[in-house]
Design a protein that fits this description.
The protein has 400 residues and is of the alpha/beta class. The chain has two domains: 125 residues, Rossmann fold (3-Layer(aba) Sandwich), CATH 3.40.50.720; 216 residues, Dihydrodipicolinate Reductase, domain 2 (2-Layer Sandwich), CATH 3.30.360. The protein contains 14 helices and 16 strands. It has a seven-stranded parallel beta sheet, sandwiched between helices. Strand 13 and strand 14 form a beta hairpin. Helix 1 packs across helix 12 and helix 7 packs across helix 14. The chain is globular and about 60 Å long. The mean pLDDT is 93.
Amino acid sequence: MTITVLGAGSIGASVVRELCTRSDDVTRVQVCDTRSQALQALHEQADDDRSLRSFQVDIRDTGVLSQIVQGSDCVISCVPARHNPELAELCLEVGVHFCDLGGDDSLISEELALHERAREKGVWVVPNCGLAPGLVNVLCLHGIEQLDHAEAAHLRVGDVPLHPKPPFNFRISWSAERILADYTNPARLIEQGQVVEADALSRREDIEFGEPFGTMEAFCTQGGLSTLTDTLTGRVDALDHKTIRWPGHAHQMRFVIGLGLAENRKIGVRTHLTYRDLLVRRLRKRLGGDYEDAVLLRVLLRGETNGRPTSLVYEMVERYDTATQQTAMMRCTAIPTVVAALFLARGAPTANGGADVPENVLPREQFLQAVADRGLNIEDERHENLRDVTTKRPLDPQRA
């Protein structure tokens, strides 16, 4: 089996590691990037790189790239999300399954619009295979399936530094552009059975985790739900997603964005740079780099089973791996993505092709088991009462 990975950044490198070291039926891993140093680092870090092949190529060079991906069983995109619609089309033309980490909802819509063509070709285009959207969406639908009737679904997830340093107590785990997109675009939620929009960085709440975290904060952002809002419209009364950070982060970012520093407006007539470009560069400079982190995840479903109120809670706390020097965010994004790609490559979906998100395409129980087998420990609890997502304690009857 041959898997091609586009992009050798932090997530791409983690994807390659998963494929090379823990996938016995993958005989060839191809990775493409413009940076020779990043490619060389992958070979140096590989315990056994006999299956690893690297190509220094610009992903915009579709002529060269199509020749490289030809014959792959699946292509995984770990490049900036703006390239994914075009890359999905390229894979469609050469007849290769394609998946990616997700991105702006408008980009996902472009990929999902390929459904009919993909079905005719017998090829799968599956965006949103990372952590959120991705793993949390699968957990949400899997939990809903365990209830006779679902009333509410609350998704909380975030990547935080293990050793926060003031004044920001925050680091960039992956993409500054993605963070700003999530912090500036509205989130689509379900309230009282109706789809509503909430401003990014709004609806802040305290949320409790075990030590060393204690009281964290969570607030609305765009990217976590993606198509899940449409999927669950008419099925639940309430659905929301919030991003977890150390306390104070939402206030800081509202201040920065309120100054107009995230606007796509040119700074002056003599430069092509926008205020947003400048902010991205400063975020990378000040908050990028290597650091030890943790991923905090909690998905809570409320409803009924056998006529009795029931709450299901899925929770995961993953920390930086000192042995492999991999961040929690790298592993928690790469592992679900690799699992999804391998399901596609092995022909697991029951249909013959199309464009859809993983929670609708892949067998959920097997997907979650494969994720667990690769080391992500997701604990689950069932309670015969209604619980609060922020504390996991029984819900106040007035709030229920």
